[in-house]
Amino acid sequence: MADERNQDKNRDRSQEATPDTRPADRPPAPKTSVPADAEVPGGVIVGVEIPPEAPPTVSEEVHPSNAFTRAGLAAFDWLDFRLGIRSTFVPILVHKSPKVNWWYVFGSATLIAFVMQVVTGVALAFTYVPAPDNAYQSIAWITDDATLGSVVRGIHYWGATAMVLLVFIHMCQVFAFGSFKFPRELNWLSGIVLLLLTISLAFTGQLLRWDQDAYWAVYVMAEQVARVPFIGNWLMQIIIAGETVGGNTLTRFYATHVFLLPAATFALIGIHLYLVIKHGISELPVPGKPVDPKTYGEEYEELLEEEGEPFWPDSAWKDVIAALAIGALVLALAIWPGPKHLGEVAEPTLLQTSPRPDWYFLSLFALLALMPPGLEDTLIILGPVLIGLVLILVPFFAGTGERHWRRRPWALGIIACTVVALAVLTYLGDQASWSPDLTPKPLSADVIARADAAGLSRGSTIFQENACINCHRIGDSGGTKGPDLTTVGDRLTQEQLVWRILNGGNGMPAYGETLSTNDVDQVVQFLLQQKQEREEAP
Amino acid sequence: MSDAKEISRRKLLNQISIAGVGMATVVVSVPIVAYLLSPFIKGEKRVWQDVGAVSDFEINKTVQVNLQDPSPLPWAGETALTSAWLRRGTSGFIAFSVHCTHLGCPVNWNQGGQLFLCPCHGGVFTANGDPAGGPPQRPLQRHHVRVNGDRVEIKPVPLRVKVV
């Protein structure tokens, strides 16, 4: 037995010592895998035909006369024999897939966006310094001084936008086409995790700019996490690496953004792609043709037999075009308008700031401002859990039956409502009309002059100095948190104004204890002066 | 070798291998997890910090004072500092956290209006830190503050969130 083992070893060594591109005793290709007529879900790779015997080498097929070509092909054959390029990868690439349309390009486009993020992210990591005292400066240097650094950062920034949008569109398409149904439930679930990872990458990425928006966004996130019952504060401290956002926080987010999340994303993409190959690309839905687990595999195989086409290049050319278009668009945006402008450097002692998240979190930002305060804790904690639960349960409750959207109008309704809600909330978040203007423009000279002429300069001063102007607009000055007072004199009486100022309400604080009676009278007279059609000044 | 013994040997090897890998994973994980949880395990030492002389603060005025972060690191840069709002009332000092109790954004003091305004979601607090408008339901968090001789000292409290 020992002799046999030694002989085997010697045989192996002799083969290693003389690396022939096509060994004389080349064994047939392993009959691995799968019979070509494998059925879903029992088969391994649907539509992939693996030849029962090893095909001739490329050198044998081509017979090149040129010495260089011969050497090149011999090198390829050498690699092919060891890596199984033609026996394993090529069959996967050219496997039969159903004819699909342009809606199917968003999955591969998301993958391309992720690859762009990885490549530009690695490039940025060559210079970025993940320490609070230098992070902002290193990004400023990349943007302003490094050769084409602005473009690289721009690709990373707009690539993130593309990835978030594309993964969302891909998810909507899969939902609308019923592609999550049997036997692709796990494709959907792995996609949900990839969506979560994409959002996490976007969030942790915006923090690495380490400007004021980034710094305070950590607190906003921490406050939400801390509301989790029992373990909230503990969880918050784990995430921000302590009890305050400080030296450890940025490095923690950096490691998460560049190592943990990309590693998890790579793994999940691997699983997702494996599942796509295993179950095949979902065919176009046909009205009146429901998914029946008992017959689906057979029907799918028949479809491939009848009208299937090699994935490469017959189907993949659309993916290539989409990838090129996405890449070109991201590059164009990276050049103009370029990466997001850096705000002020993160400085906890600089409190005169109005932090805002990147656009993909503006909808959440708006939701947190608009939800009823009494339900806040419940919604912040249960909201994401419920959304996650619904997404997870979708393929289990609707895993069979009709796939076509015409037979599933509720599916289109859900997508439409989600898109409209996100768009409206994003717009509202961008406007942030609920936020006071901390640095409002002073009242116009016209308004001041009219107040002065009527002996109400004290009233206009109180309006500007006592925070009224932070929330109320007169003309083109002031915030938008409260009602616009440009024509308040036409709408409210003196009594109504006095009552409102003394008692507050609807988010306005009561000024009864802050202003004297005379001050209230002055500001009320000043406000009554604000009318659409004003009397001519004497 | 009988079949029964062969299977038993395989079982043993299988179990030893799994147990070995499992133990190695645990052994390697302990220092890694402990290291990652280090800030939490070590905690932060919160000490009284001098923020100025009593005479530096006017009665009925609220001013921003800067404090050292409880766990400053050599590379923390500007984030080694944090702030608080210090109000001197007729009966003593009150030190407020700068974090809005809604979601932690920095509140700003408006002296004329005697209000704290939050720039994120429009939270408003009175001079005493009580919620006066917007989403916040809880008053501003207060730091410990004392007068030591003629000096005012603050001991910051950690960020805490209580579910209402």
Question: What does this 3D model show about the protein?
Answer:
The complex is a heterodimer of chains A (538) and B (164). Chain A has helices at residues 2-17, 58-62, 67-83, 85-93, 106-125, 135-144, 149-176, 185-207, 212-225, 232-240, 247-279, 296-307, 311-335, 362-370, 376-397, 409-431, 445-453, 457-465, 468-471, 488-491, 494-503, 517-528, and strands spanning 96-97, 309-310. Chain A has 538 residues and is mainly alpha-helical. The model of chain A is unreliable at 1-44 (pLDDT under 50). Chain B is α+β, with helices and mostly antiparallel strands and 164 residues long. In chain B, the strands form two sheets. Chain B has a six-stranded antiparallel sheet, with no helix packed on it. Chain B has a four-stranded antiparallel sheet with strand order 5-6-7-8, with no helix packed on it. In chain B, a hairpin with a 6-residue loop joins strand 6 and strand 7 (124-126). At the A-B interface, helix 9, helix 10, helix 11, helix 14 and helix 19 of A face strand 3 of B.
